[in-house]
Model the fold of this input.
Amino acid sequence: MLKTRTSRIALTALLMLPTLALMGCAAPAAAAPEPTLVSAPPSAATPTATPTATPKNEAADPVWPNERCQDEQLAAELVERPDLSVANREGFVIVLTNVSEQSCSYYGWPGVLLLSADGTLLTSRDDKMIGPAEPEPGALAPGESAQVEALLTEVGTYDCTPTTATTIRVLVTSDGAGPGIDAPADLQVCGDARSDFSGGPSIPAS
Done:
């Protein structure tokens, strides 16, 4: 009788082994540990670009559209301009025309001299600038003109012996190195170079 019961218990255990094995297979897998996030060090191969300030050129040279005009390329003409006159000062313009076959550029204040019939210097442009303080460079194609506005103090303003300036000479070549551009004139000035004569920069002719 005891042998029979033992056999039954052993048989029952054997029958349960597959079930336990299946239960072991179906048991949930242990959860994988969550990855730890680590900040990557900055890459030396891809540095952050730092904007570089562009230096400001406070005294930039003008951009010349063409080669600078030379005295030999231009012709001058003195034109009365009463509309430019102010108290005790006579207004006129000097028109500069490109008579060459090549375009050229102008910029700034040309030199201007007033001469007597025998070539004596009577007066020259003073430091009292008129017109725009910061002129723009310009270009003259063949046949085109620029102008220079000017003011001459009337000779009656001074206690002096008047004389006549018969030639106006304009110096356009850089540093006054050219021969100048002469035009006929009929201007009354003091004979002792006392007359105030002011001029502006070269600007497009109006």
Summary: The first strand starts at residue 74 and ends at 80.
